[in-house]
Amino acid sequence: DDRLIVQQAGGVPYVSGGVGDESLQRLRDRASEFNLKLVFAMTSGAHLSTVRVTVADAKGSTLLEAISDGPWFLAKLPVGKYRVVASYAGKAHEQSIAVDATALRTVDFRWSDE
Question: b vs e for 45-67, b when ≥16 Cβ sit within 10 Å of the residue's Cβ?
Answer without folding.
Answer: eeebbebebbbbbeeeeebbebe
